[in-house]
Amino acid sequence: MRKMRETGTALMNAREMRLVLASAPRNLMELSRRELMAMVRRARGLVVQYEKLARRVMGGRMHTRRKAALFRTALSNFESQLRRMELAPVRKARPVMRKRPAAKKVMRPAARATPPRKKAVSAKKATRPAGYARRGPVKARAHKARRMPAMKARAPTRRAATR
C-alpha cells in the first residue's frame, strides 16, 4: 500500500486518493457492507473512465494507465473483502448479562420556562377555614422597600390627557 500511496499522490485528487487508501487491508476491515458496495461502484466507474481515456489519447499516457491500474487494484481489494463478508456466517447475537446502569442524577434547570402545575385540592382541605392549618400566631410583616425609590409616578401630561 505504501508503494501505491507514493505513486498515486501526484496523480490523483483527494477524493480518488481516499478511495485508494480505503482499499488497504487495515482500512478494509472498518468498512461496512453498504460502504463496500459504494466503494466498489466508485472504483469500477473510475477504472472504466481511465481505461477509456488511456485508449483515446494516443495509445494512452503513462500516468493515465498507471491511474487505471491503481483503481483496478483497489477494485479487486474491495471485491475480495465483499466476497469474504458474504461468505462469513452471520453470527447470532447471544444474550449478554449486563450490569444495571447506575442511576443518573437529573439536573434541573435553575428557572423553568413554564410554571409548575398546581395540584388539585382535595375536598377535605377545601372545606377548612383559611387559618385552620396554621400552627402559631400570624406575625405582621414589614412592607417591602420600593425597588427604585428615585422614580416617582408622573402626572399625565397634556398630550396624554387630550387623547
Describe the structure.
This protein has helices at residues 2-8, 14-22, 25-28, 33-56, 62-87, 123-127, 158-162. The longest helix is centred in the middle third of the chain and has 26 residues, at 62-87. The chain is 49% helix and 0% strand. With 163 residues, it is mostly helical.
Provide keyphrases for this structure.
163 residues
What's the shape?
elongated
State the helix count.
Answer: 7
Q: Strand share of the residues? A: under 5%
What's the helix-strand series?
A: HHHHHHH
User: What portion of residues is helical?
Assistant: 40-55%
Low-confidence stretches: none
Task: Classify the oligomer.
Answer: single chain
Mean pLDDT over the full residue set: 76
Largest sheet: none
- Rg is 39 Å
Cα end-to-end separation: 87 Å
What class do helices, strands and sheet pairing give?
A: mainly alpha
The count of DSSP E runs of length 2 or more, i.e. the number of strands, is 0
Layout of helices and strands:
Elements: H1 2-8, H2 14-22, H3 25-28, H4 33-56, H5 62-87, H6 123-127, H7 158-162
Helix pairs in contact: 4-5
Entry summary:
This protein has helices spanning 2-8, 14-22, 25-28, 33-56, 62-87, 123-127, 158-162.
